[in-house]
Amino acid sequence: MKLFLILQTENDNYDTFTSSVVCAPDADTARQITPYVNDKDGVMHKNWKDRCWCSNAKYVNATYLGEARDGLPVGAVCSSFNAAWTL
């Protein structure tokens, strides 16, 4: 397994994920993984259109970071989320 940094630029407003480090066997699989760390299977579903991420994996860039430790499952390891907040 490998570690990838996945980035999307389709949605860059508040309440969106900007990036995630994911564990996957290859870049194509990495692009399909959602940044939702608690997602049941870590794979893109129709609910991606909720605008917290991008609408399609074709908008995801995957950059290889290195090898993952043995036994790390496919999915998000950590994610960056731009939350809206008010004072």
In short:
With 87 residues, the chain is mostly beta strands. The chain has 1 helix and 4 strands. The mean pLDDT is 83.
List keywords for this structure.
87 residues
Describe this entry's structure for a reader:
This protein has a four-stranded antiparallel sheet with strand order 3-1-2-4. The protein is mainly beta. The mean pLDDT is 83. The longest helix is centred in the middle third of the chain and has 6 residues, at 27-32. The protein is globular, with a radius of gyration of 13 Å. The protein is built from one helix and four strands, in the order E-E-H-E-E. It is 7% helix and 37% strand. The termini are far apart. 25% of the residues are buried.
Estimate percent helicity: under 10%
The number of distinct structural domains comes to 1
Helix-strand string: EEHEE
The 3D shape can be described as globular
Distance between the termini: 43 Å
Number of E-state strands = 4
User: In DSSP terms, counting alpha (H) and pi (I) runs of 4 or more, how many helices?
Assistant: 1
Sheet having the most strands: 4 strands, antiparallel
Structural class, by secondary structure, is mainly beta
Work out the radius of gyration: 13 Å
Mean pLDDT over the full residue set: 83
